[in-house]
Amino acid sequence: MRSTKLFSLNIITLALLSTATGANAADFGVQQANISKQKIAKYQCKRCVVTEGHTGTVGGTIGRVEANDDHAINKLTTSTDDVAAGVNADMAYQQGVYKADIQAHQLGMDNGFINIKVGNTDRYQLDVDYQSITTNQYSNAQTNLWHNDGTLTPSEHSRVLDLNLQRERGSIGFEYDFAQLTGLGLSSFARYDREDKTGNRSASLVNPSPVNFAEPVDETTDKFSAGVVLDGENWLSELSYYGSRYENNIGDLSLPYSYDVYSATPDNQAHQVSLSGQYRFASSVVSGRVVSGRMIQDEDLIQMSGNPLQNWDGQVDTFNSNLTASTRVNNRLRLGASYDYSKRDNRSSVYDFAQYEYNSMSGAFVQNTAMDIDRQTAKANASYRIASGYRLQAGYTYKQVDRNYGEREETNESELWSKLNVRAIDKLTLDFGLGYSERGGSDYQADELTSDETQSLMRKYHLADRNRSEVNARASYAPLEWLTVDVSTYYANDDYDTTVIGLTQSTDYGYDANVHLQVAAPLSVYAFAGQQWIDSDQSGDQSAVWHTEIRDEFINLGLGATYTGLLEDKLTLGVDYLFANSESNTGVDPSSSAAYGAYYSYEHSVSLYGQYMISPQMALKLEYQYERYFDTDSAMVTADTDSGLITLGELNHNYNAHQLMLTFSYKLQ
User: Fold this and answer.
1) Lowest mean pLDDT segment, chosen from 39-43, 73-77, 94-98, 245-249
2) What are the record keywords, sorted (predicted)?
3) Burial level of 269, CB count in 10 A (0-12/13-18/19+)?
4) I want to staple 108 with a disulfide (CB 3.0 to 4.6 A). Which of 86, 471, 599, 636 is the partner?
């Protein structure tokens, strides 16, 4: 949208202008040049040539995937049903101030999009988007519950179906610049988006034993935004509105012998009004934003004994504000600060509900509580140029969160961080970072609403006291014109030193490395590697003291090469390889038969392609892609594992997938 573009451009402009030393600084800008004696009528920019007419490329893709699991669509973007065909385009047309752009990729396939922009470069622009997205969770899920008009009907015969989702997104937007009409920096924008989502996803309920089933999905989400932007020489402002509406076209689900056993996601809507602005002084910039919103949910409730409500008139009002300032003290020192405040005011209705104890009414009544949350964040930072090529940055952040009717009504967190940037060494850039934070707050106690169920020593990790230490480093080295190496590493430790039951410690560390080689003029090679480890410790005492260690590990490896210039510069060959592996192990001490098992997955992906230039305008590309995917989750069990548990089957993946794609492209004159 224009508002976003204006904001980005002004921020860049202000950053550049902030390098001035003040009113006494010399101005060598082009606008200060004395051209009173120059004859500029015949001058023209010989390089500023705007190509009129049609430019770009257009073409099509046809291909097929062979796989016994539709999970391959998440990587290969096309299903295994039949031959798929799509349209590709990257075209532009310009005639004077009128311009049109069209971009499309595999339009007509399971995953494809098209974007069209038309307008007058000086006044207005209209853009239209369409996108289709298909994702697969599991294939060949088995269920004995058949969905029909809101009822899950048990059957002796298992039904096999795919748990996948199809999304169709469409949007239209319009921008208009009133500058030529009004002489002011006034512009406006409006946009409407709609998404329809259908398919099936896994869900579960207890009635009275656990039941896993395929939940039907038929949802619609509408979004609308509009606003006006007004800017001047040193300032920028924007007034905008954003609204959304969610509609679930499938209601509550029932069993033949029990009604409304599964509550559907309720319809809801949200609205926001935002006012933002920015002002530039000689060497300082101040910006701010105020947002007021409301979320509404007013759907019928499932009726049950003791519930006096027919529908829920839920309403939450939100308020957000931000103030940011930065200034350039001198040519070495820059200072910045910001303050954020947000409030979530739950104005939903409060009623008296009868309380039950051991399936009988106790005679006592209690009200549902409307929980509110207030958040405040203050930040300060400084950047100091020690010497040419050396810059030191440091900052402090304070966060405070207030909650009512919670285990901990107040939490506060303080963080200190620093960075060192080195650019003085030839062909080498270095970045180092350190950070430390502490979180504390008010007394931790069980919520009065759940004190009978909550262990007094248990701490929720997002509310518990925590000390965090982190360090990171990055280096980029280009010793030769044809060689570039980038390496980064990081380490973070979270210590929940006062927690007896719950998460007590967590560490997150890893590295990333990238190498690019331009071996010769026609040959380019790249490689990358990355690993991450997350280790967590947790303690508990349900019936017996126990300790859990969770070890998560991830690895990504890649290698690729491109060779050009074959067959008189008409043929280009390329290869890409990717390996990804993730593993999660949970150990319980003392061990027992109820201990968690492991989750493990890996993927090999290979892509081979060749592109041949039939003529200067026409090209033909043939691509083969192979995927080997495997995962196993110990939580997945077959339908006959436990007679008291109804499952969707063992939904792990283990498949080989092959895709062959042929693409033709034509370059417009």
Assistant:
1) 39-43
2) Signal
3) middle
4) 86
Q: Would residue 275 be called left, alpha or beta, if left means φ above 0 and alpha means ψ between -120 and 50 degrees?
A: beta
Task: Please report how many Cα atoms fall inside a 13 Å half-sphere around the Cα of residue 64, on the Cβ side.
Answer: 4
3-state SS class at 43: coil
The single-letter code of the amino acid at 654 is N
Record the tokens describing residue 454, joined without a space: 């909550």
CB 411 within 8 A of CB 463: yes
User: DSSP string covering 351-399, please?
Assistant: -EEEEEETTEEEEEEEE-----EEEEEEEEEEEEEEETTEEEEEEEEEE
Residue 28 has pLDDT above 60, yes or no: no
Query: How far apart are alpha carbons 125 and 191 in whole angstroms?
Result: 12
Quick one: tokens of 651?
Answer: 């939904």
Beta-sheet pairing, 98-107 with 523-540: unpaired
CA atoms within 13 A on the CB side of 162: 20
Listed in sequence order, the residues at least 6 apart from 241 whose beta carbon sits closer than 8 Å to its beta carbon are 224, 225, 226, 227, 271, 272, 273, 274
Residue with tokens 């989702």: 165
Domain residue extents for the chain: 123-265
User: What does the DSSP 8-state code read for residue 36?
Assistant: T
Burial of 157 (0-12, 13-18, 19+ CB in 10 A): exposed
Name the nearest CA neighbour of 527 among 489, 490, 483, 473.
Answer: 483
Q: How far is CA 67 from CA 64, 110, 138, 632, 652, in A?
A: 10, 16, 13, 18, 15
Q: Distance (Å, rounded) from C-alpha 239 to C-alpha 228?
A: 5
Closest C-alpha among 548, 540, 651 to residue 595: 548
Q: Are 383 and 334 in contact (CB under 8 A)?
A: yes
Q: Are 585 and 551 in contact (CB under 8 A)?
A: yes
Q: Which amino acid is at 465?
A: D
Do the strands 410-422 and 390-403 form a parallel or antiparallel pair, or are they unpaired? Answer: antiparallel
Closest Cα partner for 326 from 369, 377, 289, 282? 282
Write the pLDDT tens digit of every residue in 571-628: 999 999 999 999 998 888 877 665 677 899 999 999 999 999 999 999 999 999 999 9
Reference 306, options 253, 350, 361; nearest CA is: 361
Best mean pLDDT range from 79-88, 406-415, 509-518: 509-518
User: Predicted confidence band at 261 (pLDDT cuts at 50, 70, 90)?
Assistant: confident
Q: Measured between alpha carbons, how far is 461 from 494 in angstroms, rounded to an integer?
A: 10
Report how far residue 368's alpha carbon sits from residue 352's, in angstroms, rounded to the nearest whole number.
7
